[in-house]
Specification:
Low-confidence stretches: 1-17, 333-338
Number of strands: 8
Oligomer: single chain
Distance between the termini: 42 Å
Number of domains: 2
CATH topology of the largest domain: Endonuclease III, domain 1
Order of helices and strands: HHHHHHHHHHHHEEEEHEEEEH
CATH class of the largest domain: Mainly Alpha
Shape: elongated
CATH superfamily of the largest domain: Hypothetical protein, domain 2
Mean pLDDT: 88
Structural class: alpha+beta
Radius of gyration: 25 Å
Largest sheet: 5 strands, mixed
CATH architecture of the largest domain: Orthogonal Bundle
């Protein structure tokens, strides 16, 4: 998203050589900016409750607003309140999360809802410490809920706020390092106002997401420009200090698409930890020989197709996953060894279970191949 702002002639801007970062002016400038340029019509800003704010904050972790909106609206239609979410099967929660990524967020959301029902009378607590004790809610998320839903002063430090504060105060050091985090929390405490805290909290998040962006920040339109230490020193693109990035690797796996005579595909629930935790995928193996051995020991009367299907690649944060699908034809569903954590999946009439987006695409493609 880019702001529609009138162009400013750089030659007309006069920076005061004595101007320094000023916490007392920071909040006022952001609140005034937000009144004209902030986001005011997002779905979670309507009927703002602690539950609705909480769900939005979890979804927005590491995910852009434009992506979240559709997921959020579907999630709210199915789980309009905390009690409904707590009572729902985890599979249905994961199903509505499929494609949003970082699935531990969905599992923690479900667990936290159940804890809120059992320990807090079916409501989210209104204190930072009690909120942060629930699964998946950290210090900044708890503060955002307190500020946005309850209107009480609480300091947030999400990714957007970190970037804005690191530039404004020229905070050195990579994000995530304890000394850097302590300094940023100190600056957040300095800048958070005593009043209008809900507006300020939304303002700093919007400001970091739409103007003080990681790449190509719109410094010419920045209300903090005169006081910003990074702008004054020409270090906007150097701050926050980048983390050392590990080289991306590629992990290669084989997935067995065991198809019965009715076209159903065998799926297994993945362990809670690791990638796609708790979701359903075809049986996964490190190499083709292991998949062949599984066919021989776990499937009876199954014929492994000699030619693999087209490979599928999926990018995670730190590595790429390359999937080689192998198809095995089972003469009947009864010929497959039954086990807990397995199900037969009909891609033509999908069940409401959690599937990673690439696997849903793979199964849909397989169903189309069967119909050809």
């Amino acid at each position: 998203m880019r702001l529609h702002c009138p162009l400013i002639d750089p030659g007309r801007i006069q920076l005061d050589s004595t101007s320094q970062p000023a916490p007392e002016r920071f909040a006022a400038a952001l609140i005034a900016w937000h009144a004209q340029n902030g986001r005011h019509a997002l779905p979670w800003q309507r009927e703002r409750t602690a539950y609705r704010v909480w769900v939005s904050e979890i979804m927005l972790q590491q995910t852009q607003v434009a992506t979240v909106i559709g997921y959020y609206e579907r999630f709210m239609r199915r789980f309009p309140d905390l009690a409904t979410l707590a009572a729902a099967p985890l599979d249905e929660v994961l199903h509505l999360w499929s494609g949003l990524g970082y699935y531990s967020r969905a599992r923690n959301l479900h667990r936290a809802a159940q804890r809120a029902v059992s320990e807090h009378g079916g409501e989210l607590p209104d204190g930072i410490d009690a909120l942060a004790a629930l699964p998946g809610i950290g210090r900044s998320t708890a503060a955002a809920i307190v500020a946005l839903a309850f209107g009480r002063r609480a300091c947030i430090l999400d990714g957007n706020a970190k970037r804005v504060l690191a530039r404004y105060f020229a905070v050195e050091g990579p994000l995530g390092r304890s000394a850097t985090e302590r300094e940023l929390w100190h600056r957040a405490e300095q800048c958070t106002p005593q009043s209008d805290v809900a507006v300020y909290t939304q303002a700093i998040m919007d400001f970091g997401a739409t103007l003080c962006t990681r790449r190509d920040p719109l410094c010419m339109h920045c209300p903090l420009r005169q006081d910003c230490a990074a702008q004054r020193s020409g270090r906007v693109h150097e701050l926050p200090t980048p983390r050392m990035r590990r080289p991306r690797g590629t992990r290669r796996v084989v997935m067995l698409l065991a198809v019965d005579s009715d076209g159903l595909v065998l799926l297994q629930r993945r362990p809670p930890q690791g990638i796609w935790g708790g979701l359903w995928t075809p049986p996964e193996f490190e190499h083709e020989q292991a998949a062949t051995q599984y066919c021989a020991t776990a499937l009876s009367n199954a014929h492994l197709d000699p030619a693999p299907l087209p490979r599928l690649r999926h990018a995670f944060t730190h590595f790429d996953l390359e999937i080689t699908p192998l198809r095995a034809r089972c003469l009947s569903g009864l010929s497959v060894m039954e086990a807990s954590g397995t199900l037969w999946y009909n891609a033509r009439e999908p069940a409401r279970v959690g599937l990673p987006a690439p696997i849903a695409t793979l199964l849909s493609s397989l169903a189309c191949r069967q119909e050809d």
